[in-house]
Write the structure tokens for this entry.
Amino acid sequence: MMKLAVLASLVGSAAAFAPSSNGRATTSLAAEKSKALPWLPNPSNLDGYAGANGFDPLGISNYFPADYLVESELKHGRICQLAWLGYVAVDLGARIYPLPSSMEGVTSATAHDPAVAFGSMGNMFIWIALFEMVSWIGISQMLQGSGRAPGDFGFGKGFLKGSEADIQNMKLKEVTHCRAAMLAFAGVVTQSVLYDKGFPYF
């Protein structure tokens, strides 16, 4: 019995020095390379999605469902398209009347504090929270395998006509505009604050 105990302890101590597996597949040096970043492996989890050019330098698609990442990109891109339009429209003089006296003469860059004081930001936060809660129903179903396409809320399906190539081309146009809008909104906010001028902010 004593010999068995000693043998078990030796086997256990030897196992502590054995290489462990982290559960991830190793990447071969000959693996397919990314189109966008040819020195990195292609993020294969994104293959088949519109606009997937192999750009995932942090490997985020290895840790989160690709459907969720595409949904997030489309959502942020659509919001930024509206945000850019709204930001510029306000600086060009667009207003919704009746206008509170505290909001007179503000620009998009200076509207935050008066809007908080008036209560507009809290009201907007509640509506955004409601939209987020409702939209999560569709996202949750998608992640459970419902077959819902990322970003599909049933709007604008009239544009998805023609052959499969035509539909993919339209989806590529949308995601391209989404990416451009995210950069454009960041740029327009930065430039309006740096130069403290109205549109076109220089």
Residues 192 and 201 are 5 Å apart (CA to CA).
